[in-house]
Amino acid sequence: MELGSALQFLDNKSILVTGATGFLAKIFVEKILRVQPNVKKLYLLLRAADHKSAIHRLHNEIIGKELFRVLKEKCGKNFISFISEKITLIPGDISHEDLGLKDSNLVEEIWKEVDVVVNLAATTNFDERYDVALGLNTLGAKYVVNFAKKCVKLKVLVHVSTAYVSGERTGLILENSYSMGETLNGVSGLDINIEKKVIVEKLNELSLQGASEKEITRAMKDLGIERARFYGWPNTYVFTKAMGEMLIGDFKGNMPAVIIRPTIITSTYKEPFPGWAEGVRTIDSLAVGYAKGKLTFFLGDLEAVVDVMPADMVVNAMIVAIIAHASHQPSEAIYQVGSSMRNPMKYCHLQDFGFRYFSKKPWINKDGKPIIVRKVTIMNNMASFHRYMAVRYLLLLKGLELANTAFCQFFQGAYSDLNRKISFVMRLIDIYRPYLFFDAIFDDINTEKLRIAARSSLVENDMFYFDPKSIDWDDYFMNIHIPGIVKYIFKS
Hints:
This protein is 50% helix and 11% strand. By secondary structure, the chain is an alpha/beta fold. Strands 3-2-1-4-5-7-11 form a seven-stranded parallel sheet, with helices on both faces. The chain has a two-stranded parallel ribbon with strand order 6-13. The protein has a two-stranded parallel ribbon with strand order 8-10.
């Protein structure tokens, strides 16, 4: 597989990017504009009521971010005119046919001009409302495929999924596709049209009951988890992403389509500069809680492998896959982009990095005092967690309940507050449990073939690095990732 020049491929190309305000999408857009300013056009689809709102989101949520600092320095005073020339904003919504586009002239222009479609629109909340998650992650994938089919110059569609569509499978997870209706637990009858009906029926039932918006949201979140677990997936997010992959396989026909499955995405490794991050991502929530003194115990297997991949490496893998499939159409179309196969890291390493970093550079609280971190209590199974909760909180809750009865509801406020906090923690643990005891390695043989092809035939191989073996985890976490999340996430 001869890849040639990436910059030559990108020269004068038009690319449609959905979910343009997302973390990975911004890094993708910045990389393309920085390394190949002669790209013809980036059409950015984002959710907005109108063009004015879309412009506001572009400035506030995309180019206004520090991520674009290097590009701004490179362009100087021409930055805004360069952005205006290269970016066309599209207010839309992928959970609708034709991506919810209202401007028919713009639709015709996109169908005529676009060479590459990159679908990054998704909701990544593990317990998202089922109607929202099915609309974006599942049906959205189908609508993007159908839209891409109408692009007469289309060379490739890239759909970004997640490695965790594998659910709670253990061992070596292969880069295999899902056939329509396939389930993780062997339960038959998964039908996306039936899932749509289940949602409509539930919403109608809630409407007849006069449920409040808050009650509807909670019921739809519970429905998502219930449907996911019925078919063997641990949460709504990975269930709806798996169904999205099924629809792509079913609807793509002869169109070259690539599915990228990243693992846990972390801050940038090198470009545009090391350590840029945004939003509290999965493992970063542990770091935030620990540094601020709120995380006193860790539930999970410290010897389990935690599969992380810096965001710029994921983006580089996407770009190299685009070039490979646009010109050669290799048979492999699924790429798992992670580190567990080539350069595994364990939760015990994460714990060590956090303790060492915040011991040297403690977080200063709002009173100006440093928070002293200590080694946390480790619970390596659910039974020890339940014992801990019973001794620490549930006895206290029972005592408050008895006192509340004896003292004519005097302690109702304290009882309700503690009960709410315990329920919140138990729900979080229930949702995250599969990942705390995750026991699998993601095979990346297709991704490795892509790396080998890039090393041997990609002119700009150094520019599009995505080999996890090059990462020294100690250096990355201590000098790049943790300082990055402290700078960009802690303060928000």
